[in-house]
Amino acid sequence: MAKDRSEPELDRELTDLPPELRWREWMHRIEAVLFASASPVPREDLARVVGQEASVDLLITGLAVDLEGRAFEIAQVAGGWMFRTRAVYASAIRAAADVGDQLLDLSEFDVAVLAAIAYHQPITRDGLKDIFGKEISRDLIGRLHARDLIGTGPRSPRRGAPYTFVTTEQFLVAFGLESLRDLPDREQLEDAGVVAEAPQVDFG
């Protein structure tokens, strides 16, 4: 006979605790959820572990204050929050831990193509060819796919209905962006030659 593994219902309101301890417990719950999650946790998920009237934003702010002076911080990325090691410790981590960095083994051109996809998505390989003036190899696209930095978008209405490419949530996480609106100013990147005007395609 299978064991009953049902969990007791979570007491969100914690009315038996005084206000200060209740607030501290809510902060600890948010900390535990963020610690256990490998991807950004959205506000609505965090709200499930705290009282109905509790402000997730204020709890996050309080937790961030508690983490001042620690080696990691709370980052708001991809529509949620996650723990992230502070940038100042990146070289120490690379020197002592086998963690790798998914962007380190991308070439400068790989990153330029990734930026072009970010600014022109959804875009086809032909669209990328128009930007860079040369064919973009399937191997390069495969490297970006393998790191979950890009995904497949809607098919283009052109003849043959080629696949288009779009950036992913992992792209936002990798670059510390909350949304695509936080991308650097496009005109500056155009001046640097990283992105260029691409043909507009109607996917409506």
TrEMBL record:
Please report the name of this protein according to its UniProt entry: Chromosome segregation protein ScpB
Keyword hit for Cytoplasm:
yes
Q: Which organism is it from?
A: Marinibacterium profundimaris
What Pfam families would the database entry show?
Answer: SMC_ScpB
Give the GO terms filed under biological process for this record: cell division; chromosome separation
Report whether Secreted shows up as a keyword of the record. Answer: no
Q: Which PANTHER family did the record assign?
A: SEGREGATION AND CONDENSATION PROTEIN B
Read off the InterPro entries from this record. ScpB_csome_segregation, WH-like_DNA-bd_sf, WH_DNA-bd_sf
